[in-house]
Specification:
- 67% of the residues lie in helices and 0% in strands.
- The protein starts with a helix and ends in an 8-residue tail after the last helix.
- It is built from 9 helices and no strands.
Length: 196
Amino acid sequence: MAPRDKDIKEKIVAAAWELFGEKGYEATTLNDIIARAGIARGTFYYHFNSKETLLNTLSVLLDEKYKEIEETIPADMTAYDKLLYINYYIHSFMGETIDYNLLANQYAGQLLRGGDSNLLDRNRYYFKLLAKFIEEGQKKDEIITSMTSSEIVNYYSMCERALVTDWCMNNGSYSLGEVSKEYMPLLIGMIRGPKG
C-alpha cells in the first residue's frame, strides 16, 4: 500500500472509531464516517467494503495510539516501567473512547472464528514494541532472563487481555486505566529483573 493510501486508510479508521465512541456503532452512519474523515464516498469504498468491515480495524487504531504513547515515554524509565506506562495509557484510551460492547464483540468474534485475528497478529506494532522493551530490559537486567522475550510478550499480552475482558464483562462500569494501573504490577511483577 502506498504511503498516501496508508494515511487515508488510517484517517478513515480513526474517524470511524471516534464516532463509534461518541455515538455508538449502530448510530454511526457511513455518511458520518465519510464526513468526519473528509473524504469522498469512492475513497471510502476503495479502502473498505462497508461500515461493518471497520470493526476489524481495531488493531490499526490501537497501534497508532501505541506509536503516540511511545513518543511520550520518559527516556530514563526502566523497561519494566515502560511496560506499565504503555499499559496504563492504552487502557485509559480504550476505556475512555471505545465502547465496551465493541471490544466484547471483537473478542467474541475471535472465539467464534478461531485462527488469527488482527488483534493477535504478531506483525502488529504492539507486539514489536513489547519485544523491543523486553529485549532492552533483559540486556540491562531490568527484565528477567529465565523466560525468552517471546514468552514474556505472550504472558504480558495475556494479562492485558484479561483486564480488558473483565472490564467488558462488567459492562465498562469502572475505569479500565485505573484498574490496570493497580493490577498490572501484580500480574507482571514476576518479570521484573534485579535492576527493574
